Amino acid sequence: MVRPLARALSRSGDGYLHLLIPALLALLGARELDQFCLLLALSLSVERSLYFVLKNTLKRRRPQEAVPGFRSLITASDQFSFPSGHSSAAFLLASALVLVYGGPVIAMYLWATCVALSRIVLGVHFPGDTLAGAFMGTSCALFTASLLGLA
């Protein structure tokens, strides 16, 4: 039961929601959609750039390569583990939604936390990878929102 749930949660952090949520908001005629899309696009640009530089500079090995006898439950999409891109992107999306729309803050951050935990359960990240990702995604959204005068 835990493995399928962890896989589903991990997949929900693959980035599709970063496209689907703005589309859904547009279909629903959401207010402040332009602000949200601008915040999301700019903060993702900052976050993905930082993610790429950190991951390929620090080159921290994933648990399967670093811990003798350990086997992950899935194959990661790239070679290195720090920071967790899924965690970073999930917390960025949650933060952007909360900054623009408010609403169910606990639900958004609970989802992002579950994405981060799923990456640990699946064996592709150490806890510190996901904590760093959560901090990075949230920080990028807050930084970008402050530049845009939204926070």
TrEMBL record:
<keyword id="KW-1003">Cell membrane</keyword>
<protein>
    <recommendedName>
        <fullName>undecaprenyl-diphosphate phosphatase</fullName>
        <ecNumber>3.6.1.27</ecNumber>
    </recommendedName>
</protein>
<keyword id="KW-0812">Transmembrane</keyword>
<keyword id="KW-0378">Hydrolase</keyword>
<dbReference type="GO" id="GO:0005886">
    <property type="term" value="C:plasma membrane"/>
</dbReference>
<keyword id="KW-0472">Membrane</keyword>
<keyword id="KW-1133">Transmembrane helix</keyword>
<dbReference type="GO" id="GO:0050380">
    <property type="term" value="F:undecaprenyl-diphosphatase activity"/>
</dbReference>
<dbReference type="InterPro" id="IPR036938">
    <property type="entry name" value="PAP2/HPO_sf"/>
</dbReference>
<feature type="transmembrane region" description="Helical">
    <location>
        <begin position="89"/>
        <end position="111"/>
    </location>
</feature>
<dbReference type="InterPro" id="IPR000326">
    <property type="entry name" value="PAP2/HPO"/>
</dbReference>
<dbReference type="Pfam" id="PF01569">
    <property type="entry name" value="PAP2"/>
</dbReference>
<feature type="transmembrane region" description="Helical">
    <location>
        <begin position="131"/>
        <end position="150"/>
    </location>
</feature>
<feature type="domain" description="Phosphatidic acid phosphatase type 2/haloperoxidase">
    <location>
        <begin position="36"/>
        <end position="145"/>
    </location>
</feature>
